[in-house]
Amino acid sequence: MRILRLYHINKVLLEHGLDELIPGRWLPWYVRFLRHCIFWIPNRHKDKSAGARIMLALQALGPVFIKFGQMLSTRRDLLPPHIANELALLQDRVAPFDTERAQHIIRQSLQVTSLDEVFSEFDTTPLASASIAQVHAARLKEGDIDVVVKVLRPDIRKTIVADTELMMTLAKVLQKWLPDGKRLRPVEVVKEYEKTIVDELDLTREAANGMQLGRNFEGSEALYVPTIYSDYCRANVLVMERIYGIPISNIEALIEQNTNLRILAERGVEVFFTQVFRDSFFHADMHPGNIFVSREHPDNPQYIAIDFGIVGTLNQEDKRYLAENFIAFFNRDYRKVAQLHADSGWVPSDTNIDEFEVAIRTVCEPIFQKPLAEISFGNVLVQLFNTARRFNMVVQPQLVLLQKTLLYVEGLGRQLYPQLDLWQTAKPFLENWLREQIGVKAMFTKVKANLPFWSEKLPEMPDLLYDTLKQVKRFPEKQQQANLALLQQHARAQKALHFSIVGATLVIVSAIVPLYDVHWTVPACIGLTGMMCWFAAWWKGRKAPE
Predict the structure, then answer these.
(1) Residues making up the binding site
(2) Mean pLDDT by 10 residues, the chain (546 residues)
(3) Catalytic, out of 285, 299, 333, 517
(4) How far apart are the first and last CA of the chain?
(5) Which residues make up each annotated binding site for ATP?
(6) What predicted TM-score, i.e. pTM, was given to this entire model?
(7) Structural domain includes residue 192
(8) What's 228's DSSP letter?
(9) Residue 341 structural domain
(10) Is residue 171 part of a domain?
(11) Could you give the number of structural domains in the chain?
């Protein structure tokens, strides 16, 4: 199965001519020779641009590769515009599957004979089609509400399982043979990605995620989450309020309605850090196809988020560590950054902090006090990778989702408002969060939160205190008994050892005595006595202490 899938991947890449995008001087002679030997797989898309060929190839390979293309489409600082524009089509313009099949899935999931029982209107033309599901516009009979119906692609699980199995095989090979394999931990990263994408195949989970996110931002001016109608949600069908916002990638439409792009970009950063540090629950698939802007109040713009299949969570330790690192970066306290990495175990404990500090300063100092448009993040990433390799920094799989989301947020900020000072926007938020976690105010907040628990336990405190004092009073007596038992056990062990030595000596003597002219009863008695000594040693050794 994996070999067939690997062949299919290579076939798709060759059919779309992606091998021709690699300069010939980079390929060894045997790779070029092998390509000429596979003459039956020609380039069938010679008339298309490089970006179109990459987009079509990723689309043909399925959801795992489509999502990779979605992430790349937000990195316009790393890709030429013509390629980034083509990859952007993967966000919601993947080829749809048959509408009749979609309607059959909906009827079967909702257990109705006709869609008219649930919807007064149903648009057979998909409103959008993505890598894992497609969406149809409809009108819900109950409440006469405009909704969208998301339907999972049929047989999508088989494709994803095959791809993730292949990725796992490749990851194991890389981890074993690459010099940086163990440090990069590709197997753990693939496992984390596999869990994430498999979770995305359950639309009831997505519905629950959306409702949680909606509660977190209820009444917020920064982010609106559409209502999800859980009564009509199943594992492969989701019904949600229809929104009429402007896609975040449509910059022309945003400018046309006089949207305040500076506020919009700043709120994007605010929403991200609020999700991560306030709620510990963040939308982890924030590519432009899933983000819209409300048409109301362009001077005070509001985001609209959809597609909650992938969310991330962080524990308190991760949040604290990240926040302190961000603050240290913003304050250019590279010494603290280096020390935090060592304390957290990201780099070995014997790392030279002075050298690590210098390396981090060399990479990060040039990017401060510059707008996003002037920052070469591609160059920064390369330098950080080299720094990580030099100091044996270990990849943290639990933060992969957060890292991916940061890439999306950065890409959106670059498109909306290149002059945005990302650091100054995020720094006050993080400093405020840290103040809430440390100090007198934080202490009183925690006491207040735990007050109901302690109020419940307060009546039991006198009994607990009395029992504790009784145990303390009896402690010397119990300690004395324990010491006596230990001495008795030690004495028994000594006796057992003595019997063992005597028994071994007698058995050896019983084996030597027959060499002399003695009656056979003598060695027999000696040997029997030795065996009895061994039995006595075993018996004393097995007796439990009183």
Answers:
(1) 127-135, 150
(2) 70 76 60 66 77 83 74 61 75 75 92 91 88 89 92 84 78 69 66 75 92 93 94 93 91 91 88 87 83 92 90 80 77 83 76 85 74 58 63 64 72 78 74 72 70 75 79 78 80 78 78 74 80 78 54
(3) 285
(4) 64
(5) 127-135, 150
(6) 0.68
(7) no
(8) B
(9) 245-438
(10) no
(11) 3
